[in-house]
Fold this sequence. Notes:
The complex is a heterodimer. Chain A is an alpha+beta fold. Chain A contains 15 helices and nine strands.
Amino acid sequence: MTPEQWQSVKQLFQSTVELPPQQREDFLRQACTGDPSMLAEVQSLLNAHEHVGSFLDKPIAEHLAPVDAARSAQTRTCDPDAARPVMMELSKLISDYEFIRPCGEGAFGQVWIVKDRAGAFRAMKIIRLGSNPQHRELQALEHFCRNVPSHPNLLSIFHIGQVGELLYYTMELADDLGSRLPVRQTLPDAYQPMTLRDLLEQGRLHTDTAVEITLRLLKGLQSIHHAGLVHRDIKPANVLFVNREVKLADISLMSESQTHMSLVGTPHYMPPDDQMDATADTYAIAKILYEMITGRNLTDFPHLPKDETISSQHLDLGKLNDFLIRACAPNAKDRFAAAAPMQKALLDCRFLLVDAPLLELANEELKKPEDTDAVAAIRQAMDEHTTNPTSKRSRTRSQGTTDPSTAVVMDLLDRFVKIVPWLVLLIIALVLIHRLI
Amino acid sequence: MASMTRPEFITQILSKIEEGSAGAARRLLPLVYDELRRLARQFFRSERQSHTLQPTALVHEAFLRLTGGQKLRCQNRYQFFAIAAKAMRNLLIDHARKHQAAKRRGDGKKLDWRLLTSELGTFDFDMLQLDEAVRRLDHLDPRCAQIVELRFFGGLTWDEIAAIQNCSVSTIKRDWQTARAWLRRELHDDT
């Protein structure tokens, strides 16, 4: 068939198919009088059209979607009845804990809510290791538990155990999403772990709150980076609230920063250059901050809401904007290299709070960990000054002045006077030697 | 390669296409192909499936990554989608071909990309035969063939396809109906 012939076949097909089915045959026979090949062609197309069913009805990618949707549905609503036999089995295997109900399912393993011997509620992750002793989760656990000191902004791991092929570990249980309260005596029926993802689904956060959450996350992340590790999967779903404190969770993808890894992580929170090192973590944190402040989809980055204003009395929004742009730079070398410099830069976005008590500001300065000795010395001096004023006074009186800077000058003068005779002797000796020569 | 896929570079190529440089599209295709392959691998093979991601967004995602999310003129955007759809088709067909070859050699297990080995196994037609048929349709009616490419392989919306082909949505839908019937006949001779 030539393209020209096809055009007339197509036209005839399209006008026929628009008719009610019972009129099609007559119309077609009339139109194709004296052209049986055309009649046969259009008839076979009509026949195929009748049988087209779901053929090519959806784009190819959508055929893949239900798999994903089913998996995510499973994560949110774990059917307790279906879980009962598994629960019996697990209770037998891991007898130290009372299994309450499943709470989520990832690709690696299940998360259960359990009660320990002391009656405290915990989250327990259970992974089937299979025949793989080098399971990624096990390696991540080793890295984390051996190297990262416990930190209030990192989800704590309490107990790691293994029964046969099952690896399990218990963690802090997130607060209840509905009541926003920690789980203490009883587990609410509708318990859902409170994550930043859930919070964001309810709307955007106040800029100050968002920055505060980010600063705390950066503190937690800093101790991971200090240990030479990278988290690699920072996203709102992995940010939990426990006892009203924000905590970075899910160490499954954690590894040493040098390790060359295949592309892992979650799109949108991964940098476009796929550098999965510490700069990927800082990138993800910045994306979360953007999401918290604007409440917008990450694909909108770096656009800001048009109709609403972002305001804060405590923050220089211009600086904050520059901060976000830098933290989300497409090239790794332009981004923050680790959590510590990023935290500093974010702190620099705050206005100076002129009305804040001076002592508080000083204390804030003293909290820098790198000069702990100096901090201890200054603290001691301040304590002396505030708690024991008499001793201080007596010392200053002996020096004959109340001004500490004068005391320093006096001290220097004192030292100078001591070395003057020696200097004079040295000069005389030099003069003598010169004369003799 | 990484330095080549800078957003500016992509934008530059896209504007060249707009100026009518035929070679420019050919230069962009492999870049988009690589990007899609990387994305697809990450989406479908990764042990940790993301729950937030819609696989339908593959082409849009590739677009965002390659252009760095910067604003593009509408026409540039559509041109990109058209190329991305072609890249997607090449990607799927290449994989189907590899999969068949692997099956013939008897080491089908080695192909761990789930995209075609499991999910696409549910199609009641052969992906390579479909590709062949679309090629034949292209000789007969290039516009219909492009609609198949944009719709089935690229996952674009009717509005987007209409913008690319510069005609109304109803015309596109009529042509799509025809193309579907034609392909169905080509692939299922028995009916």
